[in-house]
Amino acid sequence: MERSLELGNMTRVQEFVLLGLSTSPETREVLFAAFLTLYLLTLLENALIVFLVCSHSELHKPMYFFLGNLSCLEMCYVSVTMPSLLAGLWTGPCHVPFPACMTQLFFFIALICTECTLLASMACDRYVAICRPLHYPLLMRPQVCLGLAGTSWLGGLLVSVVKTVCIASLSYCGPNVLNHFFCDVSPLLNLSCTHVALTELVDFLSAIVILWGSLLVATASYVAIARAVLRMPSAAARRKAFSTCASHLVVVGIFYSATLFIYARPSRMEAMDLNKVLSVIYTVATPMCNPVIYCLRNREVQAAFRRTLHGSRG
């Protein structure tokens, strides 16, 4: 009772202060130019993929449908975190109102959960294409692809609603300084002045279901693919199948390694500098590299891009 009265008399935090990626004025200008370039490049690459997939009928296949969804997600994803990162590098520590912080947190959680399930769906698509090629048109028909993509987006939104409501309902009495470049789960839990056991449990359970669940599906798919590829009699067929999946494995490995290290445990992280470095990997590096790894090295995408260039010149 006394604890409740004490918390009730405290002033609720109205805004948070994001320290940003770097507090050194000497490095902020260089980092701002570098990350602004990466941001614009990421938007350009992913927008190009979406345009090519939508405008070329030969790319109207399940694999490219999922890649188009992933590129849309990456543009939204990087636009949620990068503006606050750039603002911190340009002006130094920036003040973010409480509602704006919770809004950023909501979209960030929704998009990262959606990406997990999309990557798992893409792994299933490759499994069916390589291990059950005769059934591929039936198993990956448009209705199934739309269902998988829609479930990924809707599931991410629902998980985010639950987690954001739990975090927003906590009491924040001060201090209000977040040692991060965006409003993330762990830094916010560290600032709460009330018990966070229930919120951490929700966070942990969602990590089990979304992160570990999608990783298990992706891992099982690629293990089955590897076994099928090794049994192929033709060396050329093995190389083609391996080249198709190797790029997917690189992205999945980088994304899940960084994400699981931060989120798949029910405790508040104290090593915030390490948290920020890992966050840069999956909020900046991965969205920029995905189009290159997944699509721009792909022959069909390259052919569609060349036709687009020739058409614009003509």
Automatic annotation (TrEMBL):
Sequence ranges assigned to domain G-protein coupled receptors family 1 profile in this UniProt record:
45-294
What's in the keyword line of the UniProt record? Cell membrane, Disulfide bond, G-protein coupled receptor, Glycoprotein, Membrane, Olfaction, Receptor, Sensory transduction, Transducer, Transmembrane, Transmembrane helix
- Transmembrane regions listed in the UniProt entry: 30-54, 66-90, 102-123, 144-172, 204-230, 242-264, 276-296
Looking at the UniProt record for this protein, which Gene Ontology cellular component terms does it annotate, in alphabetical order?
A: plasma membrane
Predominant location of this chain? Answer: membrane
GO MF terms listed in the record are: G protein-coupled receptor activity; olfactory receptor activity
Q: Where in the cell is it found?
A: Cell membrane
Q: How does it sit in the membrane?
A: Multi-pass membrane protein
InterPro entries (alphabetical): GPCR_Rhodpsn, GPCR_Rhodpsn_7TM, Olfact_rcpt, Olfactory_GPCR1
Role description: Putative odorant or sperm cell receptor.
Q: Which PANTHER family match?
A: G-PROTEIN COUPLED RECEPTOR, OLFACTORY RECEPTOR-RELATED
Name the family. Belongs to the G-protein coupled receptor 1 family.
Name the chain's protein: Olfactory receptor
Q: Which organism is it from?
A: Ovis ammon polii
